[in-house]
Amino acid sequence: TPENPKVTGFQEVMDLQIQQQDEFYETQYKLLKSRSLALEVINELDLKSHPEFDVNKKPGTITVIKNTIINAINNALPSKKDEYPVEQHKELSEQEKLVSAFLYRVKVTPDRDSRLVQVSFESVDPKLSALAVNTLADQYIEWVLEKKLGVTKSAVQSLSKQLSKVKAKLEKTQDELSQFAKKWDIVSLDK
To answer: What's the angle, vertex CA 67, arms to CA 63 and CA 85, rounded to 5?
Structure first.
């Protein structure tokens, strides 16, 4: 008897699609907190000259207390580490410290009931918070559009090469057909 082919059920397909969507969104959340995107925002806003991002400044009393509490909480939780307070990374370059300090203030929180995400930025200056979040979102959108444009350009180049090859093959075939027609005295009524 012939073997029955494996038929994938509707539910299996739906489960796979949901898993792929979840992985896609998780990737997007990580991209929002990527070091390269953070560096673009830092450069765009010139945060290295902003007083809150002075990497050589000694932390204030409130910052020390806050970091101590956060570190105590993070140490009590299983492997949950909040990223990169500036004071903990003395060996990093100034740029790495800026990126770490920026990312430490960025929070990306997915909304469980939708595909939306909340992005926030912690600062003593509400204007800086709004500007940082908006610039981060703008830079992310620009990055996504650049990637899509790059894929489109690549596809156009690939299709152009294929089109050139097909045109050359068509011309060769037309020449061969013309030579065949001359050899056998075939007259075309199309012309």
So the answer is: 90
